[in-house]
Amino acid sequence: LQRYVLGVMLSAVTAKANVLLRHVHGGRYALYRSEKTGANRKAGLELEVIDGYSGLRRGVESLSGGEKFLVSLSLALGLSYVVQAQSGGCRMEAMFIDEGFGSLDPQSIADALEILASVRGSRRMVGIISHVEALAGSIGTSIEVVKGREGSHLKFSGLPA
Question: Which pLDDT does position 31 carry in this prediction?
């Protein structure tokens, strides 16, 4: 029974993640629950990705680092949507992403920002902790930690007065 319930929840999370993945690499990837079983696998609780270029299903472990980041981001946001919808009042108002953008090429950064744009208007916030300069021009509101000889200080930009 527990595996069945987890499988239903995983299906809901992957469905929401797939909506977000439509914005990644031109909709190249979609996630599916794997029905494969094996020594260390639990039937129905593993994920596979279908690659729109080849039309084949493959394990998510075959994705590159940047692709895994984008898929994980979509899954995390999908999970937050499902938990809020199923929880009867539980609100997940903030999510923080610590790094991961450093492994992305410019197009993948744009795809990640497109995924994150889905949060706008939902009264939720995503905080990004990153050293990647390419993000600075794409994010309207920021808090920067500036190191100095006498200690660090915060620099705020894009906040309403």
Answer: 94
